[in-house]
Amino acid sequence: MNLIKHKNIILKSSREFLADAIFPNSDKKLPLIIFVHGYKGYKDWGAWELMGEKFANAGFYFVKFNFSHNGTTIENPNDFADMEAFGQNNYSKELDDLEIVINEFTSRKEVDSQNLTLVGHSRGGGVCIIKASENKRINQLITLASISTLDRFPKNEAFENWKNTGVYYIENARTKQKLPHYFQFFEDYKNNEERLDVEKASKKIDIPTLIIHGVSDESVGMDHSENLHEWIGNSELKIIENANHTFGAKEPWEESFLPKELNSVVEYCIDFLKK
């Protein structure tokens, strides 16, 4: 199929950020999928581009984007080049960014604005759940290895140290960079705790929802997706055997094909959306 790609479209919230669109050349208006990356993620990580191509080949208008404060920049969309931005990220900013992406792409001439699916990976799954509970334009929801709570902060002594110093650091295993988390992240969560309650948001969702998790997920336990399945009434849970947190993908991904587990995930998603 002849695919059209628009790379590095500049969008703006409190800061400029980038989005990509991949879609088939078609006379018909296309159902829209917006993919939301997770913690320490970005739009061009691993095999996400190949995933987008597979969705586009199945007839979808696929969008992926970098959150404005995920640490990437307009000049360096694949690197954590702005540590200050990373440290200033929070859930409210991510929800604002996602709203901007929804507004931008539902207005594109190629898109059927009445057919919008959010697909969120890991922390992005939690963000998608909050958004789906708030925005009635979203018609379907898919979570991949999602968390079931946004309360993912240091506890006890580590929390007190964070509060006192104003920052804690996580090493990025791949790049060895020390990524800062400023205390404003927790403050934003506490100030918006009602809004950012994934369980409450889940129980408000009545759109068709597909929840996917890998048996061998090393980062987020399968109990998170089991919780979501219990809370979201109109949901189905799909367990992927032998799949880790990224369904076999890694950065960099140098193959020209999807890893077996991620390929299965995309096929389940396509079947779910075409039912």
Question: Mind explaining what this structure looks like?
Answer:
By secondary structure, the chain is of the alpha/beta class. It is 34% helix and 25% strand. The chain contains 9 helices and 10 strands. The chain has helices at 48-57, 83-87, 91-106, 123-134, 156-165, 184-191, 198-204, 222-231, 260-274, and strands at 3-12, 16-24, 30-36, 61-65, 111-121, 140-144, 167-171, 178-182, 209-214, 235-240. The strands form 2 sheets. It has an 8-stranded mixed β-sheet, with helices on both faces. Strands 7-8 form a two-stranded antiparallel sheet. α8 links the parallel β9 (209-214) and β10 (235-240). α3 packs across α4 and α4 (123-134) packs across α7 (198-204). The chain starts with a strand and ends with a helix. The mean pLDDT is 98.
Report the structural category. Answer: alpha/beta
Radius of gyration: 18 Å
> What is the average per-residue confidence, as pLDDT, rounded to a whole number?
98
Distance between the termini: 22 Å
* Contiguous uncertain segments of 5+ residues: none
* Percent in helix: 25-40%
The number of helical segments is 9
List the strand order in the largest sheet: 1-2-4-3-5-6-9-10
Which of globular, elongated, flat, extended, rod-shaped describes the shape? Answer: globular
H/E element order: EEEHEHHEHEHEEHHEHEH
Number of strands: 10
Task: Specify the biggest β-sheet.
Answer: 8 strands, mixed
Strand content: 25-35%
Give the SSE layout:
Layout lengths: L2 E10 L3 E9 L5 E7 L11 H10 L3 E5 L17 H5 L3 H16 L4 E11 L1 H12 L5 E5 L11 H10 L1 E5 L6 E5 L1 H8 L6 H7 L4 E6 L7 H10 L3 E6 L19 H15 L1
Parallel strand pairs: 3-4, 3-5, 5-6, 6-9, 9-10
Antiparallel strand pairs: 1-2, 2-4, 7-8
